[in-house]
C-alpha cells in the first residue's frame, strides 16, 4: 500500500521541496513561538473576533452543565496548541463554530425568536416561477424515483464533505484544504444565522398543515424520506428530521449550499470534470424538491451564498492550481492569486505607459521642427509632390514612346 502511495503521489516530488510537508511535532512551545512572532492584521481581527463572539454566545446560551462546556473548550484549546493537530483543527474553526451554533439553536427560547413565515416562500416561488415547483415534482411518486432522490439527499450529502476534503488534500495544491474549511464553514455558519433570523416553513409543512400558522413546539417531518424509512424498515430519517435542531430552516437551503461548494472546489482542481459536478448539483436540487424539503428559491439562495464565499476564498486564500500536477507533493511552490495585480485601475511598472524609453544619438528633437515651414499642395514653387512629379515623368515617357511608334507617312501629291 505504501509503495502504491509513493508511486501515485510522491514519484514527481521536486527535489528539496517542503511546501507540502506536514507538521509532526507534539511540542506546544512551537505553536506558542509562532504565535508570539505572528503579526495580526485587520482581517484576522474581524475573522477571529466574529468566530470568537459566536463561540462565546454558544458557551453562555447552551444549557449544558458548565463543567461539560469547559471540558469541550479546553479539549479544543489543547488540539489548537499541539502543532500536529493544530494544522487541521485550528483551520477548521469556522466549521466547528457552525456546528456549535447549529446544535445550540434547538435550545433557543421561543419567546425571543422571530415568528415563523409560512406563506412567504410559496408566494415568492409562484411570483418568480409561475407555480410551486416542489408541488409539481412531488405530484408523481414512485419507488424508483424515491431511491433516486434518496441517494444525493440522504446519502451523499452527509458523506460528501469528508470525501471532498480528503481528495482536495491529496490532489490539490498545499493549503487548499484550509481554504475549503474556511469557505465551507462560513457558508454554513451564515446560513444557520439566516435560518434563525428568518425561520420559514418547508414544503412538507404546506402538505401537512396547509398555510396555517406554525409554532416552535411543532415537530419536524422527514418529508419524502419517510418513504425510505418504510422501504428499509428503519426510523432513521423520521427520528432525525422530527427532532432537527432547526426545523423551520428552509431558507436558505444548506443542502444546496454544500453541494454547490463541493462542486466549485472540485471544478477548481479538476476543471475538465465540471459538467459532472454541475450534474450532481442539479440532481440534488431535484431531489430536495421531490422530497418536499425545499422550494426552488431556497436552493437558489443557498447556491448564491456558497458562490459568494467561494469567490472571496478563491481570490484571497486559495493557492493557484497547475494543470499538469495532480498531487500536493508535486508542487514546488505555492502561488496565490493577486487581486491588486490584476486590477486594471492599479498602476503597474510593467504597463506600457510606465516603460522608460532609452535615449540615443538618433533621438528626434521636436524643437528643431518648430522653425520649419510645412509645404502646401498649392505652393508649386516650393515643392512638387512625389505623385505629381512621377506623373509628369510618366507622361513625357509616354509621349516619346507614342511618337517613336508612329510610322513616318510620306505625302503623295
Mean pLDDT: 83
Oligomer: single chain
Tell me the strand percentage band: under 5%
Q: Please tell me how large the radius of gyration is.
A: 36 Å
- The count of helical stretches stands at 17
Low-pLDDT windows of residues: 376-393, 405-413
Spatial gap, N to C terminus: 123 Å
Series of secondary-structure elements, N-terminal to C-terminal: HHHHHHHHHHHHHHHHH
- Structural class, from secondary structure content? mainly alpha
Q: Share of helix among residues?
A: 55-70%
Overall tally of domains: 2
Largest sheet: none
Number of strands: 0
Structural shape: globular
Structural features, described:
The chain contains 17 helices and no strands. The protein is mostly helical and 413 residues long. It has 2 domains: 69 residues, no CATH class; 232 residues, no CATH class. Helix 4 packs across helix 5 and helix 10 packs antiparallel against helix 16. It starts with a helix and ends in an 8-residue tail after the last helix. The C terminus is likely disordered. One of its GO terms (biological process) is mannosyl diphosphorylinositol ceramide metabolic process.
Distinctive features:
LAME_0G15918g1_1, 17 helices, 0% strand, 413 residues, disordered C terminus, mainly alpha, 2 domains, PAP2/HPO, globular
Summarize, please.
This protein is an all-alpha fold and 413 residues long. The protein has 2 domains: 69 residues, no CATH class; 232 residues, no CATH class. It has 17 helices and no strands.
Topology:
Layout: H1 2-10, H2 28-36, H3 42-61, H4 66-81, H5 83-89, H6 93-104, H7 120-129, H8 133-137, H9 143-171, H10 176-197, H11 203-209, H12 225-232, H13 236-242, H14 254-269, H15 274-290, H16 296-316, H17 386-405
Helix pairs in contact: 3-6, 4-5, 6-10, 9-14, 9-15, 10-14, 10-16, 14-15, 14-16
Amino acid at each position: 500500500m505504501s509503495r502504491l502511495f509513493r508511486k501515485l503521489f510522491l514519484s514527481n516530488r521536486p527535489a528539496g521541496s517542503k511546501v507540502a510537508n506536514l507538521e509532526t511535532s507534539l511540542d506546544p512551545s512551537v505553536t506558542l513561538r509562532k504565535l508570539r512572532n505572528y503579526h495580526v492584521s485587520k482581517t484576522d481581527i474581524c475573522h477571529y473576533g466574529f468566530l470568537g463572539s459566536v463561540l462565546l454566545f454558544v458557551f453562555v446560551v447552551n444549557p449544558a452543565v458548565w463543567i461539560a462546556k469547559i471540558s469541550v473548550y479546553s479539549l479544543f484549546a489543547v488540539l489548537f496548541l499541539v502543532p500536529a493537530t493544530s494544522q487541521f483543527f485550528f483551520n477548521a474553526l469556522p466549521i466547528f463554530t457552525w456546528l456549535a451554533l447549529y446544535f445550540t439553536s434547538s435550545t433557543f427560547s421561543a419567546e425571543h425568536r422571530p415568528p415563523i413565515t409560512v406563506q412567504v416562500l410559496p408566494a415568492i416561488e409562484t411570483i418568480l416561477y409561475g407555480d410551486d415547483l416542489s408541488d409539481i415534482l412531488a405530484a408523481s411518486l414512485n419507488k424508483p424515483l424515491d431511491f433516486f432522490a434518496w441517494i444525493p439527499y440522504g446519502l451523499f450529502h452527509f458523506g460528501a464533505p469528508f470525501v471532498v476534503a480528503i481528495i482536495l488534500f491529496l490532489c490539490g495544491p498545499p493549503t487548499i484544504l484550509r481554504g475549503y474549511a474556511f469557505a465551507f464553514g462560513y457558508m454554513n455558519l451564515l446560513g444557520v444565522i439566516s435560518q434563525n433570523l428568518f425561520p420559514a416553513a418547508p414544503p412538507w409543512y404546506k402538505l401537512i398543515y396547509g398555510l396555517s400558522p406554525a409554532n416552535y413546539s411543532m415537530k419536524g417531518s422527514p418529508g419524502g424520506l419517510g418513504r425510505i424509512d418504510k422501504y428499509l424498515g428503519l426510523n432513521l430519517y423520521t427520528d432525525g428530521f422530527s427532532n432537527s435542531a432547526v426545523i423551520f430552516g428552509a431558507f436558505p437551503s444548506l443542502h444546496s449550499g454544500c453541494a454547490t461548494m463541493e462542486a466549485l472546489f472540485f471544478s477548481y482542481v479538476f476543471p475538465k470534470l465540471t459538467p459532472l459536478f454541475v450534474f450532481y448539483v442539479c440532481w440534488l436540487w431535484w431531489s430536495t424538491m421531490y422530497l418536499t424539503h425545499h422550494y426552488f428559491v431556497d436552493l437558489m439562495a443557498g447556491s448564491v451564498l456558497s458562490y459568494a464565499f467561494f469567490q472571496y476564498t478563491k481570490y484571497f486564500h486559495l493557492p493557484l492550481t497547475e494543470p499538469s500536477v495532480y498531487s500536493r507533493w508535486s508542487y514546488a511552490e505555492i502561488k496565490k492569486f493577486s487581486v491588486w495585480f490584476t486590477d486594471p485601475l492599479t498602476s503597474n511598472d510593467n504597463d506600457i505607459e510606465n516603460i522608460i524609453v532609452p535615449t540615443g544619438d538618433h533621438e528626434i528633437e521636436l524643437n528643431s521642427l518648430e522653425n520649419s515651414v510645412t509645404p502646401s499642395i498649392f505652393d508649386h514653387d516650393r515643392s512638387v509632390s512625389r505623385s505629381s512629379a512621377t506623373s509628369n515623368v510618366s507622361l513625357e515617357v509616354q509621349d516619346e514612346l507614342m511618337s517613336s511608334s508612329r510610322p513616318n507617312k510620306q505625302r503623295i501629291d
